[in-house]
C-alpha cells in the first residue's frame, strides 16, 4: 500500500498544517488541564474527574488522545482526552494502518475511532507490522516506497513535544537506488523536511529505512 505521490510544495503545506494542529492541540490540552485544576482548587479537592479529560464519554463517542498517549499523559501532566463522536463511516478515510491503544491494528485512524479506541504509540501492537509495511511509531509505512522519519523536539523537558514519527515517501531521485546517503540529504533539505540537525539514517535487515533528527515541532 502506498499513498499518491506529493510534490515538494504539497509536502511542505502538509507539514505546516500538521505543526499547526499539534500546537493547537498542545495549547488546548494545557487549557483543559488548567480549567480542571481551577475547578478542583489548589489542593485538587472536588469531584473525581471523568475518565476522559474530566468528562465521561457516551457510548456513541470515543475518547481521543494525542497519538501515542493512550491517556497516560505526555504533552502536559494529567488526563486531557477529548470526547468526540464516533465516525459513522470511514469510506473516504486515508488508507494508513495504525496501531491503536487496544493493541490492534486498524486500517486507518477512522476505523480505530469507530471502534472507540484512540491511536497508540506502536508499542501496544508488539511491533507486528502488516505484510509489506514497516512499523513507524503509531503508523505503518509502505516498505517499498516510504521510510520512517523520527523528529525529536530539542526543547527542555517542560516544553518538549513527543517525538513525531511519520511515513515519508522516498524522494524520486532516490527511488532508482535508495540509500541512506540520498535519504539523509533529502531530509536535511529545509524544503522537504523539518530537520534542524544533520539526519541520521539506518537501514534495517528487511531493507527498510529510518531517518532520525531533531527539529522544532511547534
Overall outline: globular
Percent in strands: 15-25%
State the end-to-end distance: 30 Å
Total count of helical runs of at least 4 residues: 4
Given as residue ranges, the uncertain stretches (5+ residues, pLDDT < 50) are 1-5, 25-49
**Number of DSSP strands?**
10
Q: Give the H and E element order.
A: HEEEEHEEEEHHEE
> Mean pLDDT across all residues, rounded?
77
Query: Largest sheet, order of strands side by side?
Result: 8-7-10-9
What is the alpha-carbon Rg in Å? 19 Å
Helix percentage: 10-25%
Supply the helix-strand structural class.
Answer: alpha+beta
Q: What is the makeup of the main sheet?
A: 4 strands, mixed
Description:
With 218 residues, the chain is an alpha+beta fold. It has a domain at 136-218. Helix content is 24%, strand content 20%. The longest helix is centred in the N-terminal third of the chain and has 33 residues, at 8-40.
Please supply descriptive tags for the structure shown above.
4-stranded mixed β-sheet; signal; disordered N terminus; TAT_signal; Kazal-like domain-containing protein; alpha+beta; 24% helix; 218 residues; two-stranded antiparallel ribbon
Amino acid at each position: 500500500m502506498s499513498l499518491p505521490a506529493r510534490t515538494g510544495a504539497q509536502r511542505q503545506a502538509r507539514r505546516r498544517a500538521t505543526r499547526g494542529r499539534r500546537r493547537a492541540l498542545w495549547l488546548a490540552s494545557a487549557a483543559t488541564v488548567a480549567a480542571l485544576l481551577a475547578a478542583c482548587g489548589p489542593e485538587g479537592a472536588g469531584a473525581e474527574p471523568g475518565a476522559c479529560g474530566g468528562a465521561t464519554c457516551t457510548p456513541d463517542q470515543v475518547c481521543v488522545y494525542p497519538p501515542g498517549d493512550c491517556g497516560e499523559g505526555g504533552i502536559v501532566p494529567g488526563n486531557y482526552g477529548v470526547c468526540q463522536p464516533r465516525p459513522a463511516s470511514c469510506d473516504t478515510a486515508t488508507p494508513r494502518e495504525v496501531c491503536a491503544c487496544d493493541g490492534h491494528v486498524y486500517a486507518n485512524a477512522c476505523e480505530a475511532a469507530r471502534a472507540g479506541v484512540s491511536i497508540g504509540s506502536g508499542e501496544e501492537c508488539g511491533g507486528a507490522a502488516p505484510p509489506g509495511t514497516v512499523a513507524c511509531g503509531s503508523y505503518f509505512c509502505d516498505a517499498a516506497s516510504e521510510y520512517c522519519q523520527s523528529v525529536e523536539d530539542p526543547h527542555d523537558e517542560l516544553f518538549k513535544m513527543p517525538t513525531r514519527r511519520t511515513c515519508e515517501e522516498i524522494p524520486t531521485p532516490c527511488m532508482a537506488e535508495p540509500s541512506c546517503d540520498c535519504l539523509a540529504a533529502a531530509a536535511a533539505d529545509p524544503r522537504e523536511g523539518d530537520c534542524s540537525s544533520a539526519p541520521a539514517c539506518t537501514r534495517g535487515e528487511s531493507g527498510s529505512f529510518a531517518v532520525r533528527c531533531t527539529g522544532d515541532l511547534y
